[in-house]
Amino acid sequence: MSIASHKIFVQKRNLINLPREIREYLNINEGDVLDIRIDDGKIIIEPMKVVPSSQAYFWSEATKNDMIEAKNDVDSANVREFKTISEFLDGIEQ
User: Fold this and answer.
1) Cα angle: 87, vertex 89, 90; to 5 degrees
2) What is the predicted pLDDT for the residue at 94?
3) What residues form DSSP beta bridges with 42?
4) Mean pLDDT, all residues of the chain
5) Where would a tag sit more exposed on the chain, N or C end, judged by fewer CB atoms within 10 A?
6) Where is the SpoVT-AbrB domain positioned along the sequence (predicted)?
């Protein structure tokens, strides 16, 4: 989807207002975090999702790769079934 160009004005205390069309398209709501940076002389504003530090490991590259590997194993039927917890625990030690 293409969003039309918008001209906005810098208001008092250097505030800007994001046009509704852009907020709705990107699902930006009050309280959301936006990353703002300069790239090649342009201002880039990007919505961010904040992750609690206790869950940051889940979003790491290593975890992402592990999840892809697990999905590939399941898709290719490279799985084992355990009937008891003891059997499972013995299986992960191998």
Assistant:
1) 65
2) 60
3) 39
4) 90
5) N
6) 8-53
Q: Is 34 helix (H, G, I), strand (E, B) or coil?
A: strand
Enumerate domains of the chain plus CATH numbers. 12-48 (2.10.260.10), 53-93 (no CATH)
pLDDT of residue 23: 93
3-state secondary structure of 8: coil
What are 47-83's pLDDT values in tens digits?
A: 998 888 888 888 788 999 999 999 999 999 998 888 9
User: How far are the Cα atoms of 1, 74, 91 from residue 83, in angstroms, in the given order?
Assistant: 50, 18, 11
Q: 7 Cβ partners below 8 Å, 6+ apart?
A: none
pLDDT of residue 52: 84
